[in-house]
Automatic annotation (TrEMBL):
The lineage of its organism: Eukaryota, Sar, Stramenopiles, Ochrophyta, Bacillariophyta. GO terms for cellular component: mannan polymerase complex. It comes from the Eukaryota. InterPro entries: GlycoTrfase_DXD_sugar-bd_CS (IPR007577), Nucleotide-diphossugar_trans (IPR029044), Och1-like (IPR039367). GO terms for molecular function: alpha-1,6-mannosyltransferase activity. It comes from Cylindrotheca closterium. Signal peptide: none annotated. This is Uncharacterized protein.
Amino acid sequence: MDQLAKDNERPIPCSLKLLALVLVPGLLISVQFARFSNAASTQSILQTSFSYFEEVDAPRIRSFLGTSDPGKDGEAKNNSSLIQSVSNPQSLESDQAFASQMLHEPIPIEVLIQHNTTCPEGLFPIENTHLPRSVTHLEGRRIPKIIHITSRHRCATSAVIKNVNKWRFNNYSVYFHDDNALHKLFAHPHTRNLFPTLREGLKCVTAGATKSDLWRYLALYVYGGIYTDIDNSPTKFNGETIQPDDDSFFPLEGLGIMSQYFFASSPGHPLMRQMLETGVERLKLIPNVMINNPAQSTGPGACKVGFIKFMAEVGVETTGYINAGLYVGANNRSVTVVGKKENSREYVDRGGLGDGNKLGYYKALGIKHFSESRKGTSPKGKISCKEHLKRTKGTDKVANYKYVKKFQKYIEVNTTMKVWSAALSE
């Protein structure tokens, strides 16, 4: 992999010049952001100001993200392809817009995941590990040392707590996001500006797994870091596996596509955008809004198709079934793929928690697998996502229908999902 990185001369995503005059904490500072392409041509300088505030131990200055020009002819096979870059002004404008938007994070992550949780007897809260940015966001490192985990509730069984603790690597922050944290990020105006179609897509989310799928792409696009399912355990993967110049990181899963249950990315990566937008597009096409089928709509299917689109932007055709290697696609951003489909547990064991412990956790928390949503459904009188969006135009009403045999059709349940409604109306 080192030789491949050398051959391809992967560009640092941005060159940051920060000229700041700090009068007192809380005042505005001036910023000049200059980005250079790997052809050594200076891009336009973004000039802006942003509010400065401090962490406990060091000034928290926002990190700004930029990229070089997009590459072409780049699907890697057997770690041997040489990828050259070409210019795309449209992509550069898009990246500059993102860099400008990122000057104001939607919600500081430590605020997003703050909690005051009291768990019932026999359950325990999954605690966060919050380290200063001077530790997690090292200069010259693309993917921050942050691990994101999600589930409906923060309370968990002792087996889950033990499994989560396996991810607490040295010098890594670990953040647990419950449903409330997900809703905050989804509903924030910053998110709506970045992904205008997401708001509609969320109205058709009727399975927790679907919500989790869309959120993980969004969280890594905004904050960067590592995402892992709560029942995963690290095997070969450790705190040093991801290299400073890795732009995104995926092990191969058993199907021969990039894993969607574990991956990592730098902030603002166009692959995360493609996966999120693809998931929303596919969700809107489902024929029965009460059956999301996340595996096809927002999960592995969106991951694979998102990668296909990411590579297509530089004229590279792929089926999404790939080998380990370095892939450079849209905006000259890269994807590092490791492992073999025949040994999908080489880096991460997606069944590390164990089936018995997983079932015990689901039972204790009242969590149902998305496949159970099909119970009580019928192909008769079904309501598609598009139909639901038409019926609820101008609102943020989430689909909530139940099949009534007497009428042989789906009837809207006369209750509201208060948490969703409140979050989406903020």
